[in-house]
Amino acid sequence: MTDKPRVGVLALQGDFDAHRRAIERAGGDAVEVRTAEDLRDVEGLVIPGGESTTMLKLLNDEHLFEPVREFGKRKPVFGTCAGAILLASEVVNPHQDSLGLVDITVERNAYGRQIDSRISDIELDDGKTEAVFIRAPVIRRVGQGVKVLASYRNDPVLVEQGRHLIATFHPELSRDISIHRKFLETLIQNGDGRDDENPSR
Amino acid sequence: MNFQTDQFRLKVGLAEMLKGGVIMDVVNAEQAVVAEKAGAVAVMALERVPADIRKEGGVARMSQIRIIRDIMEAVSIPVMAKVRIGHFMEARILEVLGVDYIDESEVLTPADEEHHVSKHDFKVPFVCGARNLGEALRRIAEGAAMIRTKGEAGSGNIVEAVRHIRTIVKEMKQLTVLGKEELVHEAKNLQAPLELVEYVAEHGKLPVPNFSAGGIATPADAALVMQLGAEAVFVGSGIFKSSDPETRARAIVKAATYYRDPVKLLEASEELGEAMPGLEISKLESSELMQTRGW
What ipTM goes with this model? Predict the structure, then answer.
């Protein structure tokens, strides 16, 4: 491993460039991922915001769905908004396939349309942060082993399971990079991540 | 002009989510479903695609509400709709309806020949067309949260889209090497607020996402404008006026992601049927051009 952790950002569509900037500000090295080969030399993966239907279609058509799922069995994945939808074990409104790396049920567009998008403060363990919700999903169920790190109006909005992290909002669109930092720490602790039964966190 | 307000950040935020994607014109729920399945990041709800507006003539207005509503119910991706330039009441109606983005568009017949909608006054975000940097910055000053280069809608001809994206990118690059006093002069030439001119000079890009529209008919067209600096593409008549819309829609979606990868672009182009018929721009009367609408 080099000094800077190499973080892949799934760049099929969406705000992957905002994630690249956030990762670099948090001290990581960001690499755009568009093919299965691109996954080889990254230590973690970010699935950005965007349209989950578009990303899911490209994951399938470009034979990336299984490689990303396999990647997630060894290495940390961080999903925001559309990324949260893709990582969930179940998606409703409407139902769609997902990677199933985190045991949650997610309802798409649960706050409504764009005019219902909002920016609100949420409480983390170590203080407040801003949460940018854009046509955001809501986590309707969290499975055993899923830890809720922050909530908004009683719904979990930031959760982790093992090495994976999920936000229904967009930390990449805020100045505060503490959530990206947290992901980078997970990534460093995970190392080469060979032992799936005993994740480092 | 404060671009750091929560409202403006949310508007730009949705545009950020559409980057690397394809926004497709659709005239009914059935087409909207085809577009969503093919991987569109959003649909533009219309009564007629630009090629038909061009052919049929007459006044082109905001679409029938029933059509837009049907489309909103049929798909889970964002739905956009067009209003006539300057027609802030059509915009108020679409805002209440709940569309996710409004396109104040030169494709419809302008309602006001001097003024555009004051877009900061709305909660719903707006996208506007531009042919050059001055137009783009004036629209942003009015509150547009996304710019799309105009091209020539309904022409199936990429030449104007290329001209417009090249012009804007070149004009932005030129600003980055100028001194402060020169920027004041440039703001005057561009007829744009100094504050925005200074932003572009510092960052080398617009303060909002910059997409491309007007004449994109093939995966290669989409890849071309993205290589030239567009961050996503609008495809109007190009999809549903082609012989096999579904295949073409999928191919253009693939091209928007892999625009730097000729092997993937070959794959995307392989199965295509016939593209929409194209128009030569020089054969159009100046009164037939849509790109010159907007001030």
Answer: 0.94
